[in-house]
Amino acid sequence: MEGESFKDQDRDLRLIKALNIQAGLEELCLTRFDRLTATGQLIYEPSTAETIEDQGFKLSFRFAPHLRRKPITPADAPERTTGEGHNPFLDPPPSEVLLSIEPDHLLLVNKFSVYRPSLLLITREFVPQADGLSRNDLAAAWTILCHFKEPYMMIYNCGFESGSSQGHKHMQLWPYPDEQELGFELFPNQAKSDVYVTDDISNVPYKHFVLRLPMNADLVTLGHAYDELLRCVRQSHYEAGKGTDYNVILVKEWMCMIPRRHSGLDRGAGANSAAMLGLVWIVTEAETEVWNSAGPAEYFKYLGLPR
Ligand code: AMP
User: Fold this and answer.
1) pLDDT tens digits for 215-259?
2) Could you tell me which CATH number the domain at 10-303 has?
3) How far apart are alpha carbons 74 and 76 in whole angstroms?
4) pLDDT (tens digit, 9 = 90+) per residue, 52-64?
């Protein structure tokens, strides 16, 4: 939570726990993901993508029709505020659980996936997805990111308008995309400073805030970066006159936040943190039309806050 701080002893404990994560976790994620996909328990299919450019901003449309089966919890459903009703994360199937990260989290394979493997980091108890990330959430995500040999990214869709489909707090992790294959670099990579927030990357159509992270950043630095970016998000919602929701993207090299005002579901094409980076998942043909009607750059301005 904002303003919350890690005590030194907590930090030490975290580092010890990070070292204790089982060797082979990264391999386990893949083998479990493949096994459950083969038996139909996970909904995943390899997908194809095409890269386009609009108003100087490059993005990729990835066609993932299998996500049609993914349920979306409405904005006003009790599941989002109290955890009552259908909550797939309260008692997840043991076959989907990969690891318990003390004290609060479970690492799962994701039942509806676009990337191989896609993982979920959920809170054990119900916490609303509209809450910001706590220090323990950040620590759990950071532990995994630092433990894996391959580069991974973590996304968090905070609140309904940020594109979250479930109301129980969950972060998502998957391998960092191959930028050669994409044909572009994810824009937060262009941020240079780990002191001053970057908010002016060229051709990004919407407000964005990025901090580079120092090499081997500790949890205290991570927490400060989170608070600083969140302050910028809140300021921009305040200036816009409304809004609370935002996307968080974390990799070992940087953290990025994007304030949101619309999920896109109201227009027929929802967008989460990945979409705001330019990694757009297209589930139905109609969604392509929504993105293209005024052009993706204009649609991005509707989803986020125009610069
Ligand atoms: P988001 O759309 O960001 O809220 O993420 C929700 C995530 O939960 C999606 O990535 C879904 O694939 C995932 N998920 C995993 N298991 C389930 C389930 N049983 N029902 C709905 N979503 C699920």
Assistant:
1) 989 999 999 999 999 999 999 999 999 999 999 999 999 999 999
2) 3.30.428.70
3) 6
4) 999 999 999 999 9
Domain extents for the chain?
10-303
134 lines ligand 1 (CB under 6 A): no
164 CA: nearest ligand 1 atom: 4
Nearest to 156 by CA among 123, 203, 125, 124: 123
User: What is the atom index within ligand 1 of the atom nearest the CA of 155?
Assistant: 3
If one residue of 32, 70, 80, 265 were mutated to test the ligand 1 pocket, choosing by the most ligand atoms within 8 A of its CB, it would be 70
Nearest CA owner, ligand 1 atom 15: 111
Instruction: Tell me if 87 CB under 6 Å of ligand 1.
Output: no
d(CA 279, CA 303): 14
Cβ atoms of 260 and 163 within 8 Å: the answer is yes
pLDDT of 187-219, one tens digit each? 999 999 999 999 999 999 999 999 999 998 999
The pLDDT tens digits of the residues spanning 85-120 come to: 889 999 999 999 999 998 899 999 999 999 999 999
Provide the b/e sequence for 48-65 (b: ≥16 CB within 10 Å). ebeebebeebbbbbbbbe
Report if pTM > 0.85: yes
Q: Please state, in angstroms and as integers, the Cα–Cα distance from residue 272 to each residue in 4, 9, 218, 232, following that order.
A: 26, 35, 27, 19
The Cα–Cα gap between 209 and 52 comes to 23
Cβ of 198 below 6 Å from ligand 1: no
Tokens of 248: 């968080």
Question: 3-class SS at 210?
Answer: strand
